[in-house]
Protein backbone atom coordinates (compact mmCIF):
# COMPACT_ATOMS: atom_id res chain seq x y z
CA UNK A 1 0.00 0.00 0.00
CA UNK A 2 2.86 2.39 0.73
CA UNK A 3 3.96 2.16 -2.92
CA UNK A 4 0.66 3.57 -4.22
CA UNK A 5 0.69 7.17 -5.43
CA UNK A 6 -2.08 9.56 -6.54
CA UNK A 7 -2.68 9.17 -10.26
CA UNK A 8 -1.82 5.47 -10.28
CA UNK A 9 -4.18 2.95 -11.85
CA UNK A 10 -5.56 0.31 -9.51
CA UNK A 11 -8.38 -2.23 -9.50
CA UNK A 12 -11.65 -1.05 -8.00
CA UNK A 13 -15.11 -2.59 -8.03
CA UNK A 14 -18.54 -1.39 -9.07
CA UNK A 15 -21.77 -1.79 -7.09
CA UNK A 16 -22.09 -5.34 -8.42
CA UNK A 17 -18.68 -6.36 -7.14
CA UNK A 18 -17.20 -6.56 -10.65
CA UNK A 19 -13.60 -5.49 -11.13
CA UNK A 20 -13.22 -2.15 -12.91
CA UNK A 21 -10.17 -0.01 -13.71
CA UNK A 22 -9.87 2.73 -11.15
CA UNK A 23 -7.57 5.61 -10.22
CA UNK A 24 -6.06 6.74 -6.93
CA UNK A 25 -7.16 10.36 -6.57
CA UNK A 26 -5.58 11.26 -3.26
CA UNK A 27 -4.83 9.99 0.22
CA UNK A 28 -7.51 9.93 2.90
CA UNK A 29 -4.78 8.92 5.33
CA UNK A 30 -1.05 8.89 4.63
CA UNK A 31 1.25 8.43 7.60
CA UNK A 32 4.39 6.41 6.73
CA UNK A 33 5.90 6.80 10.20
CA UNK A 34 2.77 5.78 12.12
CA UNK A 35 2.92 2.83 14.50
CA UNK A 36 -0.45 1.40 15.45
CA UNK A 37 -2.65 -1.62 15.88
CA UNK A 38 -3.93 -3.52 12.85
CA UNK A 39 -5.99 -6.66 12.49
CA UNK A 40 -4.61 -9.46 10.34
CA UNK A 41 -7.56 -11.35 8.84
CA UNK A 42 -6.52 -14.71 7.36
CA UNK A 43 -8.79 -16.55 4.93
CA UNK A 44 -9.18 -20.13 3.76
CA UNK A 45 -7.49 -19.35 0.44
CA UNK A 46 -4.35 -18.17 2.23
CA UNK A 47 -4.90 -14.42 1.98
CA UNK A 48 -3.88 -12.14 4.84
CA UNK A 49 -5.71 -8.83 4.94
CA UNK A 50 -4.31 -6.08 7.20
CA UNK A 51 -6.72 -3.36 8.31
CA UNK A 52 -7.18 -0.98 11.20
CA UNK A 53 -10.13 -1.84 13.45
CA UNK A 54 -12.35 0.88 11.98
CA UNK A 55 -11.64 0.31 8.31
CA UNK A 56 -14.57 -1.03 6.29
CA UNK A 57 -14.40 -4.44 4.62
CA UNK A 58 -17.09 -6.28 2.64
CA UNK A 59 -18.60 -9.27 4.44
CA UNK A 60 -21.47 -11.55 3.43
CA UNK A 61 -24.50 -10.37 5.37
CA UNK A 62 -25.23 -12.32 8.54
CA UNK A 63 -28.68 -13.50 7.44
CA UNK A 64 -27.16 -14.83 4.23
CA UNK A 65 -24.55 -16.79 6.16
CA UNK A 66 -27.22 -18.23 8.45
CA UNK A 67 -28.95 -19.62 5.35
CA UNK A 68 -25.77 -21.47 4.37
CA UNK A 69 -25.11 -19.14 1.47
CA UNK A 70 -21.63 -20.63 1.02
CA UNK A 71 -23.44 -23.17 -1.14
CA UNK A 72 -25.95 -20.84 -2.75
CA UNK A 73 -23.49 -18.03 -3.60
CA UNK A 74 -21.22 -20.28 -5.62
CA UNK A 75 -18.67 -19.19 -8.18
CA UNK A 76 -20.99 -19.65 -11.14
CA UNK A 77 -23.51 -17.20 -9.72
CA UNK A 78 -20.83 -14.60 -9.03
CA UNK A 79 -19.36 -14.70 -12.52
CA UNK A 80 -21.81 -11.99 -13.58
CA UNK A 81 -21.33 -10.06 -10.35
CA UNK A 82 -23.57 -9.64 -7.35
CA UNK A 83 -25.50 -6.83 -5.74
CA UNK A 84 -23.18 -5.69 -2.96
CA UNK A 85 -26.06 -3.89 -1.28
CA UNK A 86 -28.28 -6.97 -0.94
CA UNK A 87 -25.70 -9.72 -0.40
CA UNK A 88 -22.80 -7.98 1.33
CA UNK A 89 -22.33 -5.33 3.98
CA UNK A 90 -19.38 -3.03 4.57
CA UNK A 91 -18.49 -3.41 8.26
CA UNK A 92 -15.69 -2.34 10.55
CA UNK A 93 -12.85 -4.86 10.46
CA UNK A 94 -13.29 -5.36 14.22
CA UNK A 95 -16.78 -6.76 13.58
CA UNK A 96 -15.50 -9.56 11.34
CA UNK A 97 -15.51 -12.98 12.97
CA UNK A 98 -14.00 -16.38 12.19
CA UNK A 99 -16.22 -18.25 9.67
CA UNK A 100 -17.52 -14.99 8.18
CA UNK A 101 -17.27 -14.84 4.39
CA UNK A 102 -15.38 -12.02 2.65
CA UNK A 103 -15.75 -11.22 -1.04
CA UNK A 104 -12.95 -12.28 -3.37
CA UNK A 105 -13.45 -9.84 -6.25
CA UNK A 106 -10.88 -11.54 -8.48
CA UNK A 107 -12.41 -15.04 -8.48
CA UNK A 108 -15.96 -13.76 -7.84
CA UNK A 109 -16.32 -16.10 -4.90
CA UNK A 110 -16.52 -16.19 -1.12
CA UNK A 111 -13.45 -16.56 1.06
CA UNK A 112 -14.00 -17.83 4.61
CA UNK A 113 -12.19 -16.19 7.52
CA UNK A 114 -10.11 -18.74 9.43
CA UNK A 115 -8.29 -16.53 11.95
CA UNK A 116 -8.01 -12.95 13.17
CA UNK A 117 -4.99 -11.59 15.00
CA UNK A 118 -4.10 -8.20 16.43
CA UNK A 119 -0.61 -6.91 15.78
CA UNK A 120 1.38 -3.68 15.56
CA UNK A 121 2.32 -2.18 12.23
CA UNK A 122 5.73 -0.58 11.91
CA UNK A 123 5.21 0.38 8.28
CA UNK A 124 2.72 3.25 8.54
CA UNK A 125 -1.01 3.71 7.97
CA UNK A 126 -2.47 4.31 4.51
CA UNK A 127 -5.95 4.80 3.04
CA UNK A 128 -6.13 5.85 -0.62
CA UNK A 129 -9.21 7.49 -2.16
CA UNK A 130 -10.43 6.07 -5.48
CA UNK A 131 -13.31 7.08 -7.74
CA UNK A 132 -15.37 3.98 -6.89
CA UNK A 133 -14.61 4.29 -3.18
CA UNK A 134 -13.59 0.63 -3.22
CA UNK A 135 -10.27 -1.12 -3.54
CA UNK A 136 -9.14 -4.69 -4.12
CA UNK A 137 -6.44 -5.63 -1.62
CA UNK A 138 -4.86 -9.07 -2.04
CA UNK A 139 -7.91 -10.02 -4.08
CA UNK A 140 -10.40 -9.10 -1.33
CA UNK A 141 -12.83 -6.22 -1.63
CA UNK A 142 -12.53 -3.41 0.91
CA UNK A 143 -13.87 0.12 1.15
CA UNK A 144 -11.57 3.12 0.94
CA UNK A 145 -13.28 4.48 4.02
CA UNK A 146 -13.10 4.03 7.75
CA UNK A 147 -13.99 5.72 11.07
CA UNK A 148 -17.64 6.08 9.95
CA UNK A 149 -19.77 2.89 9.86
CA UNK A 150 -21.46 3.47 6.48
CA UNK A 151 -19.69 3.13 3.13
CA UNK A 152 -22.63 4.75 1.30
CA UNK A 153 -22.66 7.83 3.53
CA UNK A 154 -18.88 8.19 3.44
CA UNK A 155 -18.87 7.89 -0.35
CA UNK A 156 -21.61 10.51 -0.67
CA UNK A 157 -20.09 13.15 1.61
CA UNK A 158 -16.65 12.74 0.03
CA UNK A 159 -18.12 13.36 -3.42
CA UNK A 160 -16.41 16.79 -3.79
CA UNK A 161 -13.02 15.12 -3.30
CA UNK A 162 -13.74 12.71 -6.17
CA UNK A 163 -14.95 15.19 -8.83
CA UNK A 164 -12.10 16.58 -10.92
CA UNK A 165 -13.68 20.02 -11.41
CA UNK A 166 -14.27 20.51 -7.69
CA UNK A 167 -10.91 19.03 -6.78
CA UNK A 168 -9.25 21.64 -8.93
CA UNK A 169 -11.43 24.55 -7.80
CA UNK A 170 -11.43 23.71 -4.08
CA UNK A 171 -8.04 22.03 -3.79
CA UNK A 172 -6.89 24.06 -0.79
CA UNK A 173 -10.23 23.77 1.00
CA UNK A 174 -10.44 20.01 0.49
CA UNK A 175 -6.75 19.45 1.08
CA UNK A 176 -6.61 16.87 -1.70
CA UNK A 177 -2.91 17.49 -2.23
CA UNK A 178 -1.90 17.01 1.39
CA UNK A 179 1.22 14.88 1.85
CA UNK A 180 0.94 13.82 5.48
CA UNK A 181 -1.74 12.72 7.92
CA UNK A 182 -5.48 12.77 7.24
CA UNK A 183 -7.05 14.69 4.36
CA UNK A 184 -8.27 18.00 5.94
CA UNK A 185 -11.77 17.72 4.43
CA UNK A 186 -12.15 14.16 5.70
CA UNK A 187 -10.82 15.18 9.11
CA UNK A 188 -13.38 18.00 9.27
CA UNK A 189 -16.22 15.63 8.42
CA UNK A 190 -15.07 13.15 11.06
CA UNK A 191 -14.90 15.92 13.66
CA UNK A 192 -18.44 17.00 12.72
CA UNK A 193 -19.73 13.43 12.95
CA UNK A 194 -18.15 12.79 16.35
CA UNK A 195 -19.66 16.04 17.69
CA UNK A 196 -23.13 15.07 16.44
CA UNK A 197 -22.73 11.53 17.78
CA UNK A 198 -21.65 12.84 21.18
CA UNK A 199 -24.61 15.24 21.28
CA UNK A 200 -27.01 12.44 20.29
CA UNK A 201 -25.76 10.22 23.12
CA UNK A 202 -26.13 13.09 25.58
CA UNK A 203 -29.74 13.71 24.48
CA UNK A 204 -30.59 10.00 24.77
CA UNK A 205 -29.01 9.83 28.23
CA UNK A 206 -31.03 12.88 29.27
CA UNK A 207 -34.26 11.36 28.01
CA UNK A 208 -33.61 8.10 29.85
CA UNK A 209 -32.80 9.97 33.05
CA UNK A 210 -35.98 12.02 32.72
CA UNK A 211 -38.07 8.88 32.13
CA UNK A 212 -36.70 7.33 35.31
TrEMBL record:
TM regions (residue ranges): none
SUPFAM superfamilies in the cross-refs? Hedgehog/intein (Hint) domain
Using the record's annotation, list all stretches that form the Hint domain. Answer: 105-150
Instruction: Report the InterPro entries cross-referenced here.
Output: Hedgehog_Hint, Hedgehog_Signaling, Hint_dom_C, Hint_dom_sf
- The residues forming a coiled coil are none
One MF term in the entry's GO annotations? patched binding
Q: For this chain's UniProt record, which GO biological process terms are given?
A: cell fate specification; protein autoprocessing; regulation of gene expression; smoothened signaling pathway
Please tell me one Gene Ontology term that the record gives under cellular component: extracellular space
Q: Which Pfam families match?
A: Hint
The region annotated as signal peptide is none
- What PANTHER family has UniProt attached to this entry? HEDGEHOG, PROTEIN HEDGEHOG
Q: What is this protein called?
A: Hint domain-containing protein
Q: Which species expresses this protein natively?
A: Cyanidiococcus yangmingshanensis
- Biological classification of the source: Eukaryota, Rhodophyta, Bangiophyceae, Cyanidiales, Cyanidiaceae
Amino acid sequence: MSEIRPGMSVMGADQHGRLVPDTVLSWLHYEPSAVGEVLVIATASGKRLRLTRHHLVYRLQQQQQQKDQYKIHDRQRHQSGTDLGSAFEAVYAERVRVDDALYDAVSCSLDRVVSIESTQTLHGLYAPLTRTGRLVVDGLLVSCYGTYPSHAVSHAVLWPARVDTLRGRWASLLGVHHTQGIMPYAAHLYGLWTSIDRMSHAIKAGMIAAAC
